[in-house]
């Protein structure tokens, strides 16, 4: 029998600064060539388990270890961190923290330089690694100038250059648009098939990971392994839902419709399951039981853009005659691939750039010439990358900064900061330094810092990136409450789940022009617009089409109704 490459036996770990173990009684064997998904909510221990696998525990993070962990038959304390890194290569969630070189080529060459490899050999190896991940044309570029998907491919090339036995991915999809995420999963599967390396993926976006083959899923909860099984075994159970993970949307829809399936029915294969006659009959019955309309009321416009154009160089328009209304208390999804113009549109609304043509109104008042400061009193903007916004060392100071700049009394600032910390699920971290937070937690800090200012419109750029399902739903349910009280929201997002469940209308941008707009369920079943914008159709739309449902948009609306009713109860 093949010996495991990674083995935990009755393993526990407690950080020096904590009173309770973070990992408890872990028993797990991972075998050479396996492709594993480790999933679980924040605080479940999956990141700590990863730190044990790649040697950060015990070499960087110290604490008390009990039980046994072996890597290729050796305990970590028998190896150096350098020796472990030659076996386990890690691709970080925040790629900016992984880059060392000034150019893409220099970064990938780092491992070879450590081995004192001749320059001629080094260049050939670097070009080969970049060729594998389709990044050879960017060899001279700075890694910090690349898109999220490109950064991840450079990180992957750097690890591939080390010829490791285990590839460990820390939330590889967190910062990627749907098309880049799909490409990343395809690339990882291609590398797995070619090199047969052991591949461990830590990720919240279970549905996206399962679009490619996975051998086993390890579900973690409260520091323990809650379940281990094949995708079919876990999708046929309620394990994911019970432990705060998001099931694939089509699985939830099938269960809502009363479809029963076992592991041997292969629920991981959407197409096979949806073509069964009994499944199609139950889906149609469930659809007929729902209301056909969403009863979306048209709110008075808070912000309007009318035939707005903008060009960076004075020649080519990156925003082309765009018209958009955002109603009082409305939640709108702004969708589109990278480079579609989404960020430019937000910069136009906040005053970072001025339109070259067209008008922008706030409550019927033309604001084209308003300053950024004046607009900031009414329109809040949270950037995609939290590292681009944070200026303070402590969490509570970051959230208090804007309030202090407004000249509010100290007691009022403290009260608002504490209220906002509680709202955003950060109160327990109020005295922490920001450097101690995860990427997703930093994201919540930046959202909290703008939320504390109480704007009338909040523009949120990828608000759920890096958030687990529990914090995602808690935060988004709070957003719904704020919208019900009159605050408006524009979500710049690649998250089709967010758009589907939490927005009233959606706009799809492509090359600076709006190619689709309307009720979200209609937009997300517009296959032509989705393909043109290089987005990704939701699995609900695919299920409806494969099950021969006549009106996929009505099926999606039925799902939204069920989800919203469940949250209200």
From TrEMBL:
Keyword DNA-binding belongs to the record: no
Residue stretches in coiled coil: none
Residues covered by the ABC transporter domain: 6-247, 303-536
InterPro entries in alphabetical order: AAA+_ATPase, ABC_Co_transporter, ABC_transporter-like_ATP-bd, ABC_transporter-like_CS, ABC_transpr_CbiO/EcfA_su, ECF_ABC_transporter_ATP-bd, P-loop_NTPase
Subcellular location per the Swiss-Prot or TrEMBL entry: Cell membrane
Pfam family, one: DUF3744
Membrane topology: Peripheral membrane protein
Highest taxon above the source species: Bacteria
Cellular component, GO annotation: ATP-binding cassette (ABC) transporter complex
Keywords linked to the UniProt accession: ATP-binding, Cell membrane, Membrane, Nucleotide-binding, Repeat, Translocase, Transport
Family: Belongs to the ABC transporter superfamily.
Record's function text: Probably part of an ABC transporter complex. Responsible for energy coupling to the transport system.
Protein's recorded name: Energy-coupling factor transport system ATP-binding protein
Organism of origin: Paenibacillus aquistagni
């Amino acid at each position: 029998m093949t010996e495991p490459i990674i083995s935990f036996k009755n393993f526990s770990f407690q950080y020096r600064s904590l009173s309770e173990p973070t990992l408890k009684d872990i028993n797990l064997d991972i075998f050479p060539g396996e492709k594993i998904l480790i999933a679980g909510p924040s605080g479940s221990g999956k990141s700590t388990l990863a730190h044990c696998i790649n040697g950060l525990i015990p070499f960087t993070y110290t604490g008390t270890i009990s039980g046994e962990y072996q890597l290729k038959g050796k305990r970590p304390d028998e190896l150096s961190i350098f020796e472990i890194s030659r076996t386990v290569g890690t691709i970080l969630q925040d790629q900016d923290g992984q880059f060392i070189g000034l150019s893409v080529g220099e970064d990938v060459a780092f491992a070879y330089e450590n081995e004192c490899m001749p320059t001629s050999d080094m260049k050939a190896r670097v070009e080969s690694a970049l060729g594998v991940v389709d990044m050879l044309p960017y060899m001279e570029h700075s890694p910090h100038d690349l898109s999220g998907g490109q950064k991840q491919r450079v990180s992957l090339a750097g690890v591939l250059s080390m010829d490791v036995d285990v590839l460990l991915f820390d939330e590889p999809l967190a910062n990627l648009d749907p098309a880049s995420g799909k490409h990343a999963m395809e690339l990882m599967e291609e590398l797995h098939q070619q090199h047969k390396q052991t591949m461990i993926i830590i990720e919240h976006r279970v549905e996206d990971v399962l679009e490619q083959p996975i051998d086993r899923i390890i579900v973690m909860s409260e520091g323990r392994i809650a379940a281990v099984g094949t995708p079919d075994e876990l999708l046929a159970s309620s394990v994911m839902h019970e432990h705060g993970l998001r099931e694939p949307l089509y699985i939830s829809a099938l269960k809502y419709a009363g479809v029963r399936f076992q592991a041997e029915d292969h629920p991981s294969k959407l197409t096979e399951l949806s073509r069964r006659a009994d499944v199609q009959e139950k889906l149609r019955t469930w659809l007929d039981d729902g209301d056909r309309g969403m009863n979306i009321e048209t709110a008075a416009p808070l912000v309007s853009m009318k035939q707005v154009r903008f060009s960076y160089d004075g020649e080519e328009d990156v925003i082309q005659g765009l018209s958009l209304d955002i109603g009082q208390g409305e939640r709108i999804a702004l969708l589109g691939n990278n480079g579609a113009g989404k960020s430019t549109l937000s910069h136009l609304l906040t005053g970072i750039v001025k339109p070259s043509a067209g008008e922008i109104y706030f409550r019927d008042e033309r604001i084209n010439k308003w300053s950024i400061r004046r607009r900031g009193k009414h329109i809040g903007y949270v950037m995609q990358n939290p590292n681009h916004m944070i200026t303070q060392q402590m969490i509570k100071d970051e959230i208090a900064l804007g309030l202090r700049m407004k000249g509010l009394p100290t007691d009022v600032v403290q009260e608002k900061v504490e209220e906002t910390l509680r709202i955003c699920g950060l109160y327990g971290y109020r005295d922490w330094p920001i450097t101690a937070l995860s990427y997703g937690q930093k994201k919540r800090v930046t959202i909290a810092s703008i939320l504390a200012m109480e704007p009338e419109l909040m523009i949120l750029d990828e608000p759920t990136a890096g958030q687990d399902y529990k914090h995602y739903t808690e935060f988004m349910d709070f957003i719904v409450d704020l919208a019900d009280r009159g605050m408006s929201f524009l979500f710049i997002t690649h998250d089709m789940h967010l758009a589907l469940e939490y927005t009233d209308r959606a706009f799809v941008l492509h090359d600076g022009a709006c190619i689709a707009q309307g009720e979200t369920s209609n937009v997300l079943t517009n296959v032509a617009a989705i393909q043109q914008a290089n987005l990704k159709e939701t699995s609900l739309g695919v299920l409806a089409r494969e099950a021969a449902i006549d009106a996929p948009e009505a099926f999606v609306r039925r799902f939204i109704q069920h989800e919203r009713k469940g949250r209200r109860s």
